[in-house]
Amino acid sequence: MNSTRRKFLQGVGGALALPLLESTALAKSDVAPLRFLVVGNPLGMHPEHFFPKDLGREFQISPTLKSLDWLKDRISILSHTDHGMVNGHGREVSFLNGILPESSAAYAEKNLSIDQLISRHTAGRVRFSAVNAAVEHGIRMSWNANGVEIKPFTDPQKLFDHLFLNLTTEQKDRRRKLLERNGSILDAVSGQLSSLRNKSSSDDRNRLDHYETSVRQLEGSFADRKLWIDRVKPKFDISEHFADFDVTIENRYNAIFDMIAYSFQTDLTRVATVAFPNELNYTDVDGVNRSYHGCTHNGRREDLVSELVAIESFQIQQLSRCLKKLDSVKEPNSNGTLLDNTVVLFGSGMGYGGTHSNRNLPIMVAGGGFKHMGRVDTRNSSGKNMPLCNLFVSVLQRFGIERDKFNTSTGVFDFHA
Amino acid sequence: MHSDHPIRRCFVASFLILVASQTAFADQSLLKAHCVKCHSGDKPKAGFDIKSLGGETNKGNHELWTSSIDYVKSGEMPPAKNSRLSESERQRLIRFFEANIRQYERKASARKQRTPRRLNNRELINSVADVLLLKDVGTHQPMANLLGDSLQDGFDTSGATLGLSEYHLEQYINSVRMVVDATILSGPKPVSRRYKISSDGIFMPRRDQNTQQRDLTRRNADSIDFLDTRRRAYFGKFKNVPETGIYRINMRAMAVDRGVYDSDKTGIHDLDPIQLRIYLGDRIRNVDLPDDKPITIKLVEWLARGTRLEMTNPTDGLRLRGNGNFKFQYAIAGEYILETQPERYKKIAAAIKPTNRRVQQPSSWQHWRGYWQGPRPRLYNAEIEGPLFESWPPERQVALLGESPTLKNVAAILQPIAQRAWRRNVDESELAPIVRLVNSRAELLRESVGDKQSDDFGKSVEIEALKEGLVAILVSPSFLLINPNDAEPADVFATKLSFFLGSTIPDAKLRNAARRGELDSFDSVRAEIKRRFKTDDCKEFLGKFPYSWLQLDRINFMAPDPDRFRLYDRKRISEDMVAEVLHFFRYAIENNRPVTEMLTANYSFLNADLAKVYGVDNVAQDSTLRKYTFADGRRGGILGMGAFLTLTADSLGTSPIHRAIYVMENLLGIHPTPPPADVKIEEPDVRQAKTIKEILAAHTADKTCAACHERIDPYGYAFENFGPMGEWRDTYPAATSIGKSGKAAAHNRKQTGIPVDASSKFLTGASYKDIVEFRKLMQTNANRDRFVRCFITKLLTYANGEQPDNYTEVEKIVAKSAEHDYQIIETIAAIVDSPLFRDQ
Fold first, then answer.
1. Which of A114, A168, A283, B491 is 20 to 30 A off residue B106, Cα-Cα?
2. Beta strand B295-303 pairing with B274-280
3. How far are the Cα atoms of B63, B284, B645, B760, B774 from residue B717, in angstroms, in the given order?
4. Among B648, B662, B784, which residue's Cα sits nearest to residue B715?
């Protein structure tokens, strides 16, 4: 575990030792970079409305996915995948890793999620190794290799400042000094660790290790950020989304997705996640009066089901709008668009909230240069569901990460089948 | 695999031989005669094969042994319907289990490792304040950016869940620095100013907007009124605190129009005071205002630079109309005029011009914006003066660093602070790296200014540099980790006790008492706990423990449907329900009630809103919680509380299974096996006219389900008379197809629904016909012991950050508690005095 981390840090150091360009992105190479966008929710999708009825490339778009009709020939909708979880809430946090936090101790990288794993691979080459966003609440989707969840930005304005606000010379200077100061604090406190280690038995070193790893990683991050301080951030404007008197959740998601699309375009980051939380009030959406969670437990009442489908369709519409944007940007150094160079994953770690089922997860993949397959039933010949981690292995390989296994995977999902 | 009988016998026989080496043969024949028939073979009942107990208790099967003993003790196993086990045989079987478990635990506890855990955010915030000798960390919300803590079964003290990452560490450095910056002030004393604010300098922007594009404040000639409860007022001249220090704040305010509108319409109780809420950053002051007679509110507060000063109308009313947004309440103004001044109403109605979009009824809220006479605070003006200091440097700084701190004695200055923070004695040599940090910081600061150094400047450099040392102390592993291996046993005990009851570092008095051995006995621990509960030191425990234990964080995870249960949504009943639980728990502690009473007491604490939910009508019409005794045997104690009944229900219906699991896991300490992963759960269908019992008939029809559900379901059916928000019901609402608007519901609900059947039968053979009888069954010896054991386990989990895994020692605490008639203080003392607390 430790040696991987060390290698990772060395990797970062190596990349940073390259001559520094005064541009937004470090590596303006002639190969188009690949990005990763994950959009998720914690309650799954109403299956009858999400999954198209017929299999294969010639399928009729489903009601929930309707806004993606324009992309119909370039997506894959996977049914019958799962993480082998029992029913109930709380397991959706395993969406991007297949492992629950409480059982993560058995894995060298804990419940590290696939977005974080990929962002490690792209770190150092871009200003932000990953951008995690949601409105008001997160859904515990991203996890680092210490088993700690990554909290998303939940306020679009703060995300904007983080991504696009350029500092004045004075602010930059202050920030650089602060990074140095904080670095000295780390030096002063980490000395205490060795004496604590001597006093403790081998078993409890584990949590001292967490402290030490955190110190090392933070030092790495400080060094990294110092180098980025002087580089100019791209200019962007999201004020149009906040012009109205009442700012709706649609405005806020539009702002978030626009920022992410632009961050991909300007190579500010290559990994982004967006979450649609349970706690959010969706009553801005037409036809919705109740809480999101309340709608999933609809007792099959048509009026409640249609409220739920309205919320779910809203999520897809936001995604679709973003994908259209990505598809409208031509990618330099390639003959495709930005979307062709972005692996897009939509889904949830819960199958469907109404039954508390964590089987048959709603999964949709777009872009990324995959040969898309339309509607796919992933069950094998004996009728067993496919571990979702099989799909993650093919995504990792697409990013050039040499792995043939990821957590609970049993193989690789083959897009060309 | 071995359905063939002779082979199965053979397996069983070999198991019994292994056991034979330790116990009398008679005990095994008991197992053989009463357990093996069901718990063996291809499909052992409830998935439990008696062979899994192995020859003796070990790490892998310890839980099976302890759950088995609970089955036998409670009389649930063997099931009454086909049991031939006599009482004396049962006792013998229990002793057999106990002996085995004890033998394993004795060995295991000798090997037990004590593991460190990180402070959670609450503990961190309290501890930082206490190390720096502050009342709180400051009003500028320095800790607002900390990453949230994950909960484990509702507890925020779980060592395994409290992660640590570079994000945490960076936030700690930043947050602690913000606190230190607002505590230690270097440089010249800031000049005090006086701000006079008249009513036209007070603004109330729309929610979520800081700019005042359009002035929407409701103004009178000399004052402003608070209408919409979500909007916050601020002073144009004093939005944020300009300099850290003490501020004297005077505001002139009063309450107007109490009782003009019917309280059933406004949702504001006539007997509640009308208040003005003042936000000083995250510090909140609620001030009761007299009716129609202005008073001057006087506050004297230490405020940190950047603190926002804001005022609101804090009532939980004014949300009953429409979807709860304030504008819909204006309709009440129209109704009031119609009723009291019909002529005037006619005139106003006649003057309404239809808009081109659609015609609005005269009763519609749009027409009555200007006529509002709801109860509300009125604010005239304010005067603020500050920053003021009783002396310079400020007292809090002198207390921390001394009169004139210099860099000559950094280690001596920091030593007492480090000892507080690290909860142990600290040698000056251990501080060497931090002393170096302080010195090099001073050097850097001097360099940055060059030659123009004055004496005053030199002084402030030294103070600035010392601040860096404070930050380092407060992000050190010895501060951030509660580490039982990092200190003497006495200090470890003092630390544990202090974090258990106060969620903060121990004070010197407690550390000294522990060091002198004054807390080594049950009696001394009891006296100390009693003393502490009389002070303010246990606030955190009294609030956080019951909240975590009963998992109240989940109360609105699936809130009752806002259309069907409007009151719950519109009056934020969940807050009253949580308050009821906390009040009840505090009462038990303050009056040293028996633990057992908490489950089935015949009383609880109600206010007017809860009384409405519970169907009680003889309570005062205000928001204060008061003790209420239920005469009908249906409510009282945790089992009758809305908080429990709501958080275990769906939004439109109830689930006896959810309630049963909750009661078993959180109140009786029973952990039923989860259903197999591939079980297909039918989605509930509220459109059909079936009762939950009929729907769940599958549980008893299907043998795999029945094995567990025969045991589980009786713990839940008793609550069927309580609806989704905990309200009493005799019948289920009639099955309806409700239209889009949800309006048909009201009409259809009047039809008679299906009567509720809340009867059931336990595996023990005991049966009940309703909640009243169920509550009596919860008071049997077996269930009383289960509840006490569960309570003890939960307290230990909260205190230790992990579940106790020593059955024998827990039983000793139960016995000690019983010796003292289960009094709650003595029970807590027995826990603290147990090796499970002391040695963990």
1. B491
2. unpaired
3. 27, 43, 12, 6, 9
4. B662
| Nearest CA distance, B543 vs chain A (angstrom) | 24
Q: Using the 8-state DSSP alphabet, how is residue B388 labeled? A: E
**CA-CA distance, B326 to B313, in Å (whole number)?**
12
Q: How far is B389 from chain A (nearest CA, A)?
A: 29
pTM to 2 decimal places: 0.85
Q: B547 in the Ramachandran plot: left (φ > 0), alpha (ψ -120 to 50) or beta?
A: alpha
Per DSSP, helices labelled H in A146-243 are 156-164, 169-199, 205-228
Stretches in chain B below the pLDDT threshold 70: 1-26, 207-214, 355-359, 450-454, 677-682, 684-689, 735-752
> At A276, is the secondary structure helix, strand, or coil?
coil
Classify residue A138 by its DSSP letter: -
Residue of A nearest to B430 (CA): A192
A-B contacts at Cβ under 8 angstroms: 183
- Do the Cβ atoms of A318 and A359 come closer than 8 Å? no
pLDDT in tens, chain A (417 residues): 343 333 333 333 333 333 333 333 444 556 889 999 999 999 999 999 999 999 999 999 999 999 999 999 999 999 999 998 888 888 999 999 999 988 887 888 889 999 999 998 887 788 899 999 999 999 999 998 878 888 899 999 999 999 998 889 999 999 999 999 999 999 999 888 887 877 766 555 677 888 888 898 899 889 888 888 888 888 999 988 988 777 899 999 999 999 999 999 999 999 999 999 998 999 889 889 888 998 998 888 899 999 999 999 999 999 999 999 999 999 988 889 999 999 999 999 999 998 888 989 999 999 999 999 999 999 999 889 999 999 999 999 999 999 999 999 999 999 875
Q: How far apart are CA A275 and CA A259, in angstroms?
A: 15
Helix (H) or strand (E) holding A396: helix A388-398
Where are the extended beta strands (E) located within B595-711?
603-606, 626-629
3-state SS, B431-480, equals: HHHHHHHHHHHHHHHHHHHCCCCCHHHHHHHHHHHHHHHHHHHHCCHHHH
Alpha helices in A200-301 (DSSP H): 205-228, 249-265, 292-296
User: A289: which chain B residues are within 8 Å (Cβ-Cβ)?
Assistant: 323, 562-563, 742
Alpha-carbon distance values, A163 to A128, A131, B403 (Å):
8, 9, 45
* Residue A269: how many other CB atoms lie within 10 Å: 22
**Cβ pair B477:A208 closer than 8 A:** yes
Residues of chain A contacting B557 with CB distance shorter than 8 Å = 89, 293
The three-state secondary structure class of B218 is strand
Cβ-Cβ contacts under 8 Å for A365 (sequence gap 6 or more): A75, A76, A78, A343, A344, A345, A346, A372, A391
- Cβ-defined contact of B163 to A146 (cutoff 8 Å): yes
Contacts of B559 in chain A (CB under 8 A): 291, 294
Closest chain B C-alpha to A280 CA, distance in angstroms: 12
pLDDT of residue A11: 34
